[in-house]
Request: fold
Amino acid sequence: MRVVILENADQVAGRAASLVLQQVQRKPDSVLGLATGGTPLATYRRLVDAARSGQVAFHQVTTFNLDEYVGLTADHPQSYRTYMRKELFEPAGFDLSRCHLPDGTRVAWEELQRECQSYERQIRESGGIDLQILGIGTDGHIAFNEPGSSLASRTRVKALTEQTRQDNARFFASPDDVPKLAITMGIGTILEARQIVLLATGGQKAKAVHALVEGPLTAQVPASALQMHPQVTVLLDVEAASWLARKDYYQHVEAIQSALESGGQIP
Ligand code: GLP
Reply:
């Protein structure tokens, strides 16, 4: 796990955007795994700017979002589908026919089950995710894999915890409007991505980040499953890194790694 501690949220967005750009410039038909929430917004703005200035073209890229609420219409202002179209897909010139989110408009249980299986199949048929962007919930969830999720789980319907519903209530008119269920990629699904970049900013994420990086591997902290993945970069601002016990070591490793990557000597 590469832990990168940056000065502020703006630098986190800059680093995340440049990892995505490198991926798409290297492979224009990349498959990206995308996240929603407040954290990746600044990264998406940078990707939009890069597309508008001609640095990159996204029209051959295929995307799979991590999750979607169950029970909102597709054009509901708080659906993740609406968020992605508005914040990234339309302004950055993605081909909408290549952009996938689970369909949470279905309500019958059997239909939801079929949708989860079909989402897994579509990811597989695309050749798998090259680069997955992740955020982290204050309770240590990734996507909507709440504490207690199987570390081998696949795309399925999950009930949201009260903590998550409260955290996400800021996007809705009233806390009661936050859906109780979501379709989410499983932890096993996420771990199959070839490369993972997790972003966390702000002091409210510090405890979860500590558990992700330094805690034991446990289903009680779904993000800790990333310890099992060989290509994870964790991009943090100073506040999100504030609970880390081995901060000095991560900074030391990062100094060596960036010197080597830019063709320099071992410092
Ligand atoms: C939601 C999403 C997650 C996201 C998390 C954190 O629950 N399903 O994918 O990582 O919120 O969101 P934020 O970035 O707004 O803190």
